Amino acid sequence: MSQPFVGEIRLFGGNFAPRNWALCNGQTINISQNQALFALIGTAFGGNGVSTFQLPNLQGRLPVGQGVGPSLSPRIVGQFAGEENVTLTQSTMPAHSHPLNASTVTANTAAVGPGVLPGAVPSPEHFYTIVDGTSPAPTPHTLDAGSVAQYGGSTPHNNLMPTLCVSYIISLFGVFPARN
Question: How far is the C-alpha of 103 from the C-alpha of 136, rounded, in Å?
Answer without folding.
Answer: 11
